Predict the 3D structure of the following.
Amino acid sequence: MDCLILRSAADVSDCQQLCELSGLSGLRNKNRDQGYKMKFQGKKTRSGVGPHAPLFLERPTDKGIVVFIHGFMGSPRQFDRLAETVYREGRSAATLLLPGHGGSAKEFESGTFERWQGYVDAEVERFAKDYNDIWLVGHSMGGLLAINAAVKYSDYIRGIQTIATPFELTKSYTHSTKVRIMSLFSRGGSSMKSAYLAVCSIQPSPSLLWRTARPIAEVKKLMQAARDNLPDVSVPVTAVFSVSDELTSISSLDIIREGLKRAVFKHLLLTDSLHAYYPEHELSQIESALVSLVLA
């Protein structure tokens, strides 16, 4: 489960400030802060409007694309920095907005395992019409969706990177959800809190706590499905975990390592990162591992 700390007027003054909190770590993109402007040779577009619109960066001369999948209550915007990184390395990049996300708590309640997976599968099929090589990157629940898609579309997918993907939890989803949603009413700010605010795409609502019950049950189904699929994954897998993750148990590393029977497996173990907060020195390690995967 991803960011459940919601933005409030006291924490984020407007959508512009929210949008500027780019990158998986929630830290500002250093290139943007320094006035850096990337030269895009193809298309750079966002689908839809609002602070959580998906991003598409096209390299017309390359037939490879990296597709980024957020997790539970997450946002495509958390991948802006990683998407620009792979673009600079010569690959096209696309971020997805999963069904039920980017809107109200009522819309989020309609999310199901089948809808999330069906959407990811449909996007893989769509990109496969234009690209010979596809890599998937998934944060938390997004990693589970990537694993399932890699089994179904092994002819198209060349590798996957999972980040903080849970096969076991440090605490229950219900407890974690309650604690994080209650943080909506907390005051004060920090770079860590800004990170969680920036990667949460569900609008604040008094009904949000009880509306998460059904989606939480769907995530548990998804966790089991991905675990069952691990032996059938045949593409290279790079898994990123942190010993300080407050939600994903570090035992998930052993589960994925032992469950993968056919895939070339690498892992990156971080020490200072939380579930959706990645300090600069460890975010750069994630970038390097991703570049190694997509350029192998």
